[in-house]
Write a structure and sequence with these properties.
2 copies of one chain form a homodimer. With about 325 residues, chain A is an alpha/beta fold. Chain A contains 13 helices and 12 strands.
């Protein structure tokens, strides 16, 4: 059995989901010959460290009861630099202004020869190439399936399951909150504001919903697809973004009369007619992209396999943990 | 650059498609540090062998013009046993009676320490566990993405992209010919016989269509999913199979009036309520499984990621070559 040591940096919904998943999946991991030991967990308040394995149940309980996982004053940076381990999971929140603190954490991990798995879009939307260069210099892997589409596999799908194919374009619904709002507006003939209020009550939309409804979140994901699958070297500022706040029940009803629905579609392709934009589009009702609820979907056009469509839940603690865990397992299988 | 030596056993549509793909993808493979050399190609008539690499263009031309790839009297078995190489691609036709000749070829490859990639469903539908045991004894990989769903990734999706998840059930359309016939019957209110004739003219259905329309092909694929993803230890005889030959335009029209379509659905799940069957089913028109044309689709229910749906082209020379190539690349990345 290979012992692989992991730190969890950031202990919100994603970090706790991964801790829960590791607890639940101990036997499955053992079947794959993997003994995954969480040697440290940190949040804003400090860290808990245990070289033989943090008690994950106790850590989750402590976080829920006290709002903090810390049992020492060690910071996240202290953990990344000084605690002996193999993989850093950066599960800090996305910050689209300067990518911090995740950006610094990832760079520091690479410099210390630690693999990085992340669910944090900010650093990738701003500094993708620099991060890849530093991972390469450190001789380590950098994986980020959880940054795009939640549980819906897309990066690892394009890289592994479709290995050998050239992906020519990707179109997709990359934000579940927008999809929920548009789907409800369509089904119930309600206004944007009415549905937004409902979504906020259900916890599907944030109190400040602008990150989702203005298309920013979808644009960040598109940048990650553009850079990692198309090698395009773009940042968030290169994306042409329109959100869903101006969409009226009337426009949805007009679309419906023509057999169409309105969806917020992210689209990326490279080459002479390169495009990278997030914009509300008319989609035929029976088109593969016309999925409802909070689902995410992506349609990849490839040279050999033709069109491949994949859909799944775009968010959720366990769904994101699933994507993180697939990345951790891939590193364990390849490197240990 | 890692040099990996491949033999292509069987040089019909799949074998030629893979040869074409290797020619086209030389640079992409080089980017992955892979120098893939085809050292032998065989068909029923003999083999051509060239330790420094068969001229693939000439081999395809020879096959098309003369109906044979052979330049020597060596048989496929001679190639598998005696020619120095790493990976055997078994691209021989599916035989559901006894799995031959593919079954013998695969076993012989394992005994000689060669990895096997295959597009041939027969041996897997009949002797899955024996094949896996022999691959394990030989210390080699056995990969067969191309046997299920053509270009649609499903085996590698479940194994890698969804690694760590337990797949609880799979439902899907696994035969493009049946889907084409049912879709056309639905759209044009035509009879089964009318559409079958049309499909035969277009080359979508065989002259003897029973393998497809009786559900045999879908059942073989389901057995492969059951054994590889659910570890169920079943063979073709364990599948409850009903084909599409009895479906009438009247039943399709009745379904349509209720917002449903009729699709040939393969379904597998393990546990107390284990099921493995292929049967025409009513599917709501807006359900993810209600895809048209010759498309294949699969809906995987998982414990962490939730429902994941994937669709793609279920057949075609280049589409199948895409699946084969992804398996070859996976072996190259892992083993060399």
């Amino acid at each position: 059995m290979k012992t692989v040591k992991l730190s969890i940096i950031g202990f919100g919904a994603v970090g706790q989901g991964v801790a829960q998943a590791i607890l639940q999946k101990k036997d499955n991991l053992a079947d794959m010959d993997i003994n995954l030991v969480v040697v440290a967990i940190s949040d804003r308040t400090g860290a808990c460290v245990e070289p033989n394995g943090v008690d994950l149940e106790a850590a989750i309980k402590r976080k829920k009861e006290k709002g903090s996982v810390a049992t020492t004053d060690l910071t996240s940076l202290d953990v990344i630099r000084d605690i002996d381990h193999n993989i850093v999971l950066d599960a800090t929140p996305t910050n689209i202004e300067d990518g911090e603190p995740g950006l610094t954490y990832m760079l520091e991990a690479f410099r210390h020869g630690r693999h990085v798995v992340t669910s944090n879009k900010g650093p990738l939307a701003l500094k993708y190439n620099m991060l890849c260069d530093e991972a390469h210099k450190g001789g380590v892997q950098f994986r980020f399936e959880a940054t795009v589409g939640g549980a819906m596999p897309i990066l690892n799908l394009a890289r592994d399951a479709l290995a050998g194919n050239m992906v020519m374009s990707i179109e997709g619904i990359l934000n579940g909150t927008c999809n929920y709002i548009l789907s409800r507006m369509t089904e119930e003939s309600l206004s944007y504001k009415q549905v937004l209020g409902e979504a906020q009550e259900l916890g599907i939309a944030e109190t400040d919903p602008s990150y989702d409804v203005e298309g920013i979140d979808a644009a960040c994901k598109l940048v990650i697809l553009a850079n990692s699958i198309f090698k395009m070297n773009v940042t968030y500022d290169d994306v042409d973004v329109t959100g869903i706040t101006k969409i009226t029940p009337e426009s949805i009803s007009l679309a419906g009369a023509e057999g169409m629905v309105i969806k917020l579609i992210g689209e990326v392709r490279d080459g002479d007619d390169a495009i990278i934009k997030v914009v509300p589009k008319l989609v035929p009702k029976n088109h593969p992209l016309a999925v409802g609820g909070t689902l995410n979907v992506a349609l990849l056009r490839t040279d050999m396999a033709g069109p491949i469509c994949v859909e799944g839940r775009g968010a959720g603690s366990m769904e994101t943990a699933s994507a993180v865990l697939s990345d951790i397992i891939a590193i364990c299988k390849k490197e240990f």
